[in-house]
Design a protein that fits this description.
It is a single chain. The chain is an alpha/beta fold. The chain is about 25% helix and about 25% strand. The strands form four sheets. A seven-stranded mixed β-sheet has the order 13-12-11-14-15-19-16, with helices on both faces. Strand 17 and strand 18 form a beta hairpin. It is globular, with a radius of gyration of 25 Å.
């Protein structure tokens, strides 16, 4: 991993983080589309001198300046507006800040580009984009790619600011370039530990601190040998992923190896799982109910299909419910929601799904009808079974709702004495239907 020419000093050990307001990922409901404009000004580690003339003028003219304490500290005295640090937690405070200061010439400071993992999204959803004037600054992503010579569009980005570190595991592939938006000085060491645990100890790591400022510096090493002491909290971690020779390859399509899961036998097996996910057809931003979660494999691979996919796994067995959580973290989707309880009783408490998978509990009274009623129009429902009793229920459901019945049979070659023969797994009957 080679830095660009004129790269600032390298040290033997450093760590860093991304900014606090960028941790916000959701926002309150839309506000009144009318009202005064809010200026949202991106600022980098280079501070006031790095701002454009338009950004400087907006900050001079503001009656109230809202931002993180570090960002407010970068402004000169000529920015005479009242300075209001963001409270913690930030998200619930947004409506109050807007209501209290919105008519006094409000300017909000953000790290780098306000619309890149930043407060800009939250404000746009709160007041509407027509009331925002966004003045971006180069993001930490842009600076890092410029230093490394990496094409931005070919670089994976994962934020762990206010989010679980385990999210990184979903993007670990041999040869892939990844930038991790750090949550603090301890993030690089934590990333190194995670890489080693996931079989990527050979990965090259480079930590960039205070990008764009006169204090910029970087530290290099591998995950397996990382020993750098915590450095500046404002950092980004660059990874050139290298899988260890004995680590399993986990692809991007459904059908991960069964060995990737911790399970007690209650697992939708690999080949059937791939067919099931194809029938469920995950789309970005959609929500899946995985009922009778078992090991959680369907919900996990639904979420791995796209970073914005969401899933709720319903599992009545407490031991299995805990196991689903561990599997989700290990496979890079720690935000999978696990609901302990029996379906259909607990289904009324869940948000409306775009797709439903029933892997267990088909014979529970009212299960199929409850799932069908909850499903959004255009949504998909898929149910698998290996028993004759449940197969009869699926045949009846097909008669009432339509869809397709498919029998899936998988056999594997196994030793038979000194020869090789086929061992047939129990056939799986699958009903898949789209609600129209």
């Amino acid at each position: 991993m080679s830095p660009a020419p004129n790269t600032p000093q390298k040290t033997a050990g450093t760590e860093t983080a991304h900014s606090a307001p960028a941790a916000v990922d959701t926002a309150p409901p839309n506000g009144d589309p009318g009202g005064p404009t809010v200026d949202v000004v991106g600022i980098g580690a280079d501070g006031w001198q790095g701002l454009s003339a338009a950004s400087q003028e907006a900050l001079r003219a503001a009656g109230v300046l809202v931002g993180g304490a570090r960002q407010l500290g970068l402004l000169p005295d000529e920015c005479a507006g009242e300075r209001v640090p963001w409270p913690s937690p930030l998200r619930p405070a947004v409506p109050k800040i807007l209501a209290e200061y919105g008519d006094r010439g409000l300017a909000v400071l953000a790290s780098g580009d306000p619309m890149f993992h930043g407060i800009g999204r939250t404000l746009a959803e709160a007041v509407g984009p027509e009331r925002l004037r966004v003045l971006p600054h180069p993001s930490s992503l842009s600076y890092a790619c410029a230093r490394l010579g990496w094409p931005v569009e070919q670089t994976e980005v994962v934020s762990v600011v206010g989010r679980p570190l385990e999210r990184i595991a979903a993007v670990l592939h041999d040869g892939r370039r990844v930038l991790v938006l750090s949550s603090g000085a301890g993030t690089p060491a934590a990333v190194a530990r995670l890489l080693c645990e996931r079989g990527f100890g050979a990965t090259r790591m480079q930590v960039w601190e205070q990008l764009g400022s006169g204090r910029e510096r970087s530290t290099e090493g591998t995950a397996a040998t990382w020993s750098a002491q915590p450095g500046d909290a404002l950092n980004i971690v660059a990874l050139e992923c290298r899988r260890d020779a004995d680590a399993a390859a986990l692809g991007t399509v459904p059908g991960l190896p069964d060995e990737a899961y911790e399970h007690d036998g209650q697992l939708t097996k690999r080949h059937v799982r791939a067919v099931t996910l194809a029938a469920l057809a995950p789309e970005p931003g959609q929500l899946l109910w995985d009922i009778g979660g078992g090991a959680g494999s369907i919900g996990i691979e639904w979420m791995r299909a796209h970073p914005s996919c969401r899933a709720v796994a319903v599992e009545r067995d407490a031991v299995r419910a805990a196991r689903i959580g561990r599997n989700a973290a290990a496979l890079g989707v720690p935000e999978l929601s696990v609901v302990p309880g029996a379906a259909p009783r607990v289904l009324g408490e869940l948000p409306q799904p775009d797709a439903v998978f029933i892997g267990g509990g088909l014979t529970a009274p009212g299960m199929l009808d409850a799932c069908w009623q909850a499903l959004r129009r255009g949504g998909r429902l898929v149910a698998n079974t290996v028993t004759l009793e449940s197969e009869a229920l699926l045949a009846d459901a097909r008669g009432r709702y339509g869809g397709e019945l498919t029998k899936l049979a998988v056999a594997q070659a196994v030793p038979v004495g000194g020869f090789t023969g086929w061992r047939q797994a129990m056939p799986v009957v699958q009903w898949s239907v789209r609600k129209t």
